[in-house]
């Protein structure tokens, strides 16, 4: 693996820890709501219709709209904006942490989670592909499937490519759940204020992104000099 590919993978693992933290924070502090994805929330919407919980239905509907808005934003930005979506995603995660931290929480009021519902699909879109791997940084079911499939294939065929693939997906899973563990550990002692601890993986991701971009610029500069010589 070359240095650029390794830096891309390290960045993916760092943002995966953001995804794990956001997921753990929302579940621990807001009645089991998983703000990273919509599968469970859509099922809950149906349940709330039949249980006549219209307050909860309104919140989940707003969360769905904001989640969809994040995907629409990325699709439009990818087509019309030349900026790197990976950098935009880190910036949005930074802003989301601040908003979650400052929005007052009221009993049965989950509005503080709404910034997470926007930030997570943006992160998924920006980091859905790392090198030759398609890998989510905000949830883990498919990553677990890919890790197990690749490891099983390696055990059967002894194909080193499958071993490398398995290592990548297991590392992504580990990063995600380390982020979740960090959120839970912080939540035990800090409660809702534990969201500020998410700045650790956010700044780690920023540092790794800047290192990766700096490496690319340096490599391109060196290649240009070499061609002129």
Summary keywords:
Growth Hormone, Chain: A; two-stranded antiparallel ribbon; 229 residues; mainly alpha
What this model shows, in words?
The chain is mainly α. The chain has a single domain (about 5-220), classed as Growth Hormone, Chain: A. The chain is about 75% helix and about 0% strand. It has eight helices and two strands, in the order αααααββααα. The chain has helices at about 5-30, 40-50, 55-80, 85-100, 115-125, 140-155, 160-190, 200-229; strands at about 130, 135. It has a two-stranded antiparallel sheet with strand order 1-2. A hairpin with a 2-residue loop joins strand 1 and strand 2. Helix 2 (about 40-50) packs antiparallel against helix 3 (about 55-80). It is globular and about 55 Å long. The two termini are about 30 Å apart. The model has no long low-confidence stretch (mean pLDDT about 90).
Could you give a short account of the major beta sheet? 2 strands, antiparallel
| CATH topology group | Growth Hormone, Chain: A
Shape: globular
The span between the termini is 28 Å
What does the average pLDDT come to? 90
- Can you tell me the number of structural domains? 1
pLDDT < 50 runs, ≥5 residues: none
CATH architecture: Up-down Bundle
Residue share in helix: over 70%
Strand content: under 5%
Strand count? 2
Number of helices: 8
**CATH C-level class:** Mainly Alpha
